[in-house]
Amino acid sequence: MMKDAKSFNVTRWTPTSRLILGLIAVLLIALAIAPVVASAGVIDRLTVLFVYILLAAMWNALAGFGGLVSIGQHMFFGLGAYLTIRLANTGLDPFASMALAAALVGMISLAVSYLMLHLKGGEFAIAMWVLAALTHRLVNLDPLIQGETGTSLISLNVYEIGVRRIAIYWAGLTAMTALLAALFLLLRSKTGAAIQAIRDSEEAAASIGVNVLGTKRVLFVLAAVGIGLAGAIWLASAISFQPKTYFSVQWTAYMIFMVLVGGIGTFEGAILGAVLFFLIESWFGDAGVWYLIGLGATALFFSLFFPKGLWGAIERRLPHALLPIGYTLSDFSPQEPHSRTANHQRSR
Amino acid sequence: MPEPVLALSAHGIGKHFGALAALDGVDFTVKPGEAVGIVGPNGAGKTTLLSVLAGALSPSRGVVHFEGRDVTALSAALRCRRGLVRTHQIPKPFTGMTVFENAYVAAAHVEAATRDEAYDLAAAALDLSGMKDVANRQAGTLGLLGRKRLELARALATRPRLLLLDEIGGGLTDAEASELVATIGELQHRGIAIVWIEHIVHVLVQVVVRLVCMDAGRVIADGVPQAVLADPAVVEAYLGGAPE
Ligand SMILES: Nc1ncnc2c1ncn2[C@@H]1O[C@H](COP(=O)(O)OP(=O)(O)OP(=O)(O)O)[C@@H](O)[C@H]1O
Ligand SMILES: [Mg+2]
Q1: I need a surface site. Which of A11, A73, B148, B164 has the fewest CB within 10 A?
Q2: pTM for this prediction
Q3: Domain annotation for chain B: domains and CATH numbers
Q4: Which residue lies with its CA nearest to atom 4 of ligand 1?
Q5: Does A14 touch chain B (CB under 8 A)?
Q6: ipTM, interface predicted TM-score of the complex
Q7: Which chain A residues are closer than 8 Å to B56 by Cβ?
């Protein structure tokens, strides 16, 4: 302790953010029991929403918090689906295959990170895209997949259709909740602060003792696992696997759209962006080429008028983040000379 | 009494950028707790030397020892964790984080620091560098002077034993400059060794006990400030041409 200890408080949670956390818990419980009352159509759509939220949150984690802008994240989406098919083909239960596939995607991304993470900015973005295309071609070579013919997760048929639908829904809800919670805890940790420091200046982060490559690696693998899980869940609800629909840059484009519209670099923004994208798709998804033009126009509108996304515009009006990952210093003033202990108020 | 280990010693440092020899055989030492100034004309290689010492650049040749151990192959991050930290001439704030968070990341990576200790270190660093009033501001909204102060605060939050400062005093008013001199005096008082690159010689000499003058990638003078400033080679290479 330094001689001139000062009194201060470091605030992280606020009463509002605790309330929000409680509301989120209630919402998650409601979602968990929703299959009891909701129609099959609603359950299927909600599963789609969970996948979108997961995708947006993971791309936002990489780009918005870590500064790792990748245009090849569909690689992990495709791998998650492909490895699920591959594992299920060995006779493993399809749901166990999904979980194992996500773990394998994590290991692959760990290996990939050694090639990719020393690349900077645009080089990293393009290299990821090239790698995604390469992975797609390799998957085409698998005799089980037979080029673009594809195959199906037929082993899901052992589950009765109603049971299967709810199980996939729960898998989606669980995956989304677990990955977002893991991300939130990571961002709130010391590593989370380091991740943001690296985004803003790698050189400065290294100069103050941050292990730059190791820190990026943690984020990169987490994002890959999340996106791999999303791919596996998508496969479970679609049943059929055709490489080009999974290893499609369209998925990365969706991720970017959701994050930019919702608000890059804010935890809440990516979720909001996914919900917006989901609504636009639900309402206008059948409009064919006009739908795509509409998406493009929306992205343009937001980048011109809300550069920090919708959440960026909302957050400016809020006194504190709803889901705080930062640190607020208060009551920072010299203390009475005779009482020297620093007084922290922390919350976890 | 045994000879005290040098805080820092660098021998035969060379650094080439293509055909340009930015450093050409530099020897440089710092004793524990010593405050050394570095001056020299633009492009002399001062910042490059600092980068090599801190580990941001690896030298083309030569070795760097910190507290008796060879750190030449050590990354900047690991050197920092051992107590050797630098500031950047062109500030590199973490613009998306608050001033306090900037200092906190630094403090949180101090070896074995608990979260509370990191809070203490970060808050103390802000206090010492006069930034407590802007603690919750986004670093990206700071002006150049604020950003320079933040460089100092962030470096201090790493609990350094040797602090490498690169032109943190440029553009200060006289009052601000004497504040900075007082701050650096306080750091010295705490036993932190300091290497300070600065063009404002009259501020520098209030703090340092030794002055090094560089020119064209070499050390051309090294000694007590008055002697160095009176050295004909220094007058010709630096003082003669500089407005100071
Ligand atoms: N990354 C780099 N690539 C190429 N050349 C460089 C690089 N960094 C520095 N230089 C060159 O090396 C020489 C020394 O630069 P340096 O920045 O060390 O000088 P300095 O003494 O700090 O100057 P100033 O007083 O202007 O800060 C200059 O000629 C500079 O242009
Ligand atoms: Mg310089």
Answers
A1: A11
A2: 0.92
A3: 1-77+194-244 (3.40.50.300)
A4: B17
A5: no
A6: 0.93
A7: 203, 206-207
